Every structure is written in structure tokens, then in C-alpha cells.
């Protein structure tokens, strides 16, 4: 107690707390609250899928599963808690991440596309798009931005990322 008071008296201790409605408190020091913790990776390129899984695991996210098939992804969505889907637009065969994003949106799970192929109507079904090729840092920053956006914060998308913000939120 004496040490804490002495530190405060010397101006060495700074405690900042700012309450916000339902998204928790902002902190000057410490870890920020995350809503995106469990991620489903849907990618048909094996090396990219492997890299994404390792990068996200190293960054502290729980990878629910890594699949390359629309039907497998839909089955996982039904049985697992998923906070975010990281999906390519083009999947195995004629399947697309667009179909997955439609199904996910219907149950309230956001999709972040990670793709080299832009899709003009992606804003209707996804929360954002990360353009390939991307680095580990870009991937993690993109997911962090999506997380903050989902918590109601205004965020600036990093290079290579486009966030889709509905018109009513943008004003």
C-alpha cells in the first residue's frame, strides 16, 4: 500500500479507465477484450491453409478447423462455436466462399475473405476482404480490425484489407 501511494505521489503510476457501453473498458495498459477467439479457416490451397492455421495459432487464436470444402464448413458451423470465418472466395470444385458467407451471415457469424480474387458483391455477405498475398502481420492486423469493428469501434483498415461497413454504421 505504501509503495503504491508513493508511486502515485511521484507520478509513476497511471491508471486509466474509460467505460463504454457493452464493449467493456478501454485500457491504457493490459490486454484488450477480444470477441474473435475461435476461427474457422476455409481454404482450398493446402500451403496457404497450413500457414494460416500456424500463424493464427501462434497469434493466440483457437483454430476450430481448417477445411477446403463448403459442406464440411457448413457442418462445422452447425456443431461448433465459431466467432469468425477466414475464407477464400474460390473453393474446391465449383464451390465458393460466397455461399459459405451467406449461410454464416444468416446465423450471425462474420466472414473475412482472404483471396486473390475480388468479388464485387462481397460487401453484402462479408465483414471484409484481405487480399492475397499477405504477410502474417497483415493477417493478424486484419483480424484485429475486424474484432474491433465487431465491438463497435471505428477502425482504419490496414494496407491490403478492405472492411465493409454498412451505410447506417458509416455515418
CATH architecture: 3-Layer(aba) Sandwich
The CATH superfamily is known as Response regulator
**Silhouette:** globular
Q: How much helical structure, as a percent, in the residues?
A: 25-40%
Which fold name fills CATH's third level, the topology?
A: Rossmann fold
Uncertain stretches of 5 or more adjacent residues: 1-25, 167-171
Q: How much β-strand is present in the residues?
A: 15-25%
Number of domains: 1
Which structural class is indicated by helix and strand composition?
Answer: alpha/beta
What attributes characterize this protein structure?
single chain; two-stranded antiparallel sheet; disordered N terminus; 8 strands; alpha/beta; 171 residues; Rossmann fold; 6 helices; disordered C terminus; six-stranded mixed sheet
Explained architecture:
This protein is of the alpha/beta class and 171 residues long. It has a single domain (38-170), classed as 3-Layer(aba) Sandwich (Rossmann fold). The protein is 35% helix and 20% strand. The protein has six helices and eight strands, in the order H-E-E-E-H-E-H-E-H-E-E-H-E-H. The chain has a six-stranded mixed β-sheet, sandwiched between helices. Strand 3 (38-42), helix 2 and strand 4 form a beta-alpha-beta unit. Helix 3 packs parallel to helix 4. The longest helix has 15 residues, at 136-150. It starts with a helix and ends with a helix. The model is unreliable at 1-25 and 167-171 (pLDDT under 50).
Characterize this entry briefly:
By secondary structure, the chain is α/β, with parallel strands linked by helices.
